[in-house]
User: Fold these one by one.
Assistant:
Number 1:
Amino acid sequence: MLRFTPILLALVYALVMYRVSVWRTHRELDAKSTELADARLKHLTDQLAAALGLARIPVYIYEIDPVNGLAAPDGRIFITRGFYRKYRNGEVTGEEMASVIAHELGHVALGHARRRMLDFSGQNALRTALIMVLGRIVPVAGVWIANALTGLLAARLSRGDEYEADEYAAALLTKAGIGVGPQKSLFAKLEELTQSRAGVSPAWLMSHPRTEERIAALDRLEARWGAQS
Ligand SMILES: [Zn+2]
């Protein structure tokens, strides 16, 4: 029993950290966000809502600069002020913003938003446990191996999620009459932004798979759906 006490403690610690992090995230989002009030975007999100048979889609502006979109486990979608600014000054179209909202809706609908919060604490617990076990066998390299293993696992999990959310968004945008085009053109724009200003790559792209692979996956979907109709 004594042998397992450190691992048990690590798990309890991870569980407490998980609750605290969920609470802090929600408090931060509540304090720093306002409901989206742009008429053009509202019209587009209403199109998405109609395609889903919902009354409305709860979209909020989150007051931070990095270009990002996120989904809270409770189903609220957040677009950052930085992203919204790009839309307001014409760098990003309303349809392209709708494609981000559709992608984030995919994370909610497919259960990713909830699982991600869990993943985060699960990964911490796994990392801590691995460091304890491996650290005894190979003192210094053990920590490095533990970090590498958990990182690899996390990347694996999230890549799959991104393609699934893209696919969900593509289907929803098609059903809503907006189409897959804006999804692809936005990827290209964000990619360009990454290249023209090194070091300021949008957070939304960094946490996602390679742009050309995502566009290629969408092309395959379109070809498949086109063949069916
Ligand atoms: Zn995503």
Note: The longest strand covers residues 59-62.
Number 2:
Amino acid sequence: MLALLVVALGALAVAYAIVVPRLEARLVDAKLDQLEKDSRLVAANVPLDLTTEAQSFAEEVSNERGARVVIYQVVSRRPLLLLIRGDSRVGSSLDVERNAVVRRAVATRRSRRGTLIKEDQRFAEVASPAANRQAVVVLLRDSLVDPLSSVQFVKRRLILAGLIALGVALILGYAGASMHARRIRRLERAADRIAGGEFDEPAVDRGNDELGQLAGAFERMRARLENLDRARREFIANASHELRTPLFSLGGFLELLDDEELDEPTRREFVKTMREQVERLTKLATDLLDLSRLDAGRLRLEWEPVELRSVAQVLADEFRVLAGPGGHRVDVVADGDPVALGDELRVLQAGRALVDNALVHTPPGTRIAIRTWADGATAYLSIADDGPGVPPEHAAHVFDRFYRASSDLASGSGLGLAIARELTAAMGGNVTLETRAGQTVATLVLRTTPAFSREQTDGVFT
Ligand SMILES: Nc1ncnc2c1ncn2[C@@H]1O[C@H](COP(=O)(O)OP(=O)(O)O)[C@@H](O)[C@H]1O
Ligand SMILES: [Mg+2]
């Protein structure tokens, strides 16, 4: 508002400073030009006998030209006669001395001009020597009030314009400032709400300007925080639920074990189930810890060459032990010696989650193949099974945390694929799952580098 005011007034002040003095100078000059022309004309016609005719001549000229006429006759540098609009009197040399214009005209014998202020009024005067009369000088004096009235007019108009500009600047400035202030305050309230954990009310501003863009950024932040907040709540709810189920079951078995009349085989059965629940809890606790580290970005990773062929072998060996005589068959198909870049333990952990799925979510008798290969800068480890696969309606969600496509008891907490994917993402890779009835392939996609190509690793790492 202040800036608008200063600009408006500054512009007017500059206009005033440029226009008014120039206009005034021009008008005064024009008046002086006209007076000079008149005074020369009068000087050329001054009557010969000044004592008798000068008075009526001066009066006549005065009426005709509208200007005051004074005729000086200087004898021996003394003015003899002084006529002012009919008043005739003999003046003294002082009269000549007093008037600078007359003095200069007498001295130079040329027309001289000037302005003076008398009784608060400005006058223009021109003194011209009479052409053929050595000692006579005619002075014409006229008020500058009329010609300068247009200057007054311009001044008044400029001041009026200034006042109007001032008013407009005030109104516009105030309106603009208060509108912006209102929008900023609305954004501020939105920020406060977000800071206070209320994410339901969107931050809106329909403006197209920077404030509008800021509000847009706020809104994106709010939406993202809302999602994060929802994910956090869901995570806590899911995690507590997952923890509670085995804990309840453990509590139930403990009570049953208290029964004195329990026969030995039943007791052993109970203890076995309890051990399984404890294993499940331990696994869940480890998974949750990994997830929280992944979320906080505090997962420590070793960067080392990982030979996928040996990873596949370790997985197959573990798998055979787990599968037992259940009837799952496993083959390892290694194509070359792909070397990935990452943390071997974490690659094993992710691979284990995939193998676990191929074991848990397929019926006995299923064939499972673990393959490894490399393609340019990418190394692959895939686990394929010919089980029933994931139903299409679930396929899009299997990588979500706690998401389970089947509700069979063998299922884990739904964290396996989520952790596998996040772990490999931390190593710059990915996990993909292609599934249809009869064929499911889960693949670890990992980075490799030319530095870890076979030729170089041969001597160093094997
Ligand atoms: N090889 C597979 N065959 C069939 N279903 C699978 C396979 N792998 C994953 N799934 C489905 O995807 C879901 C998510 O897998 P995962 O994240 O490992 O959780 P969990 O194994 O703990 O249930 C599983 O519940 C399962 O229904
Ligand atoms: Mg699993």
Note: The longest helix spans residues 145-195.
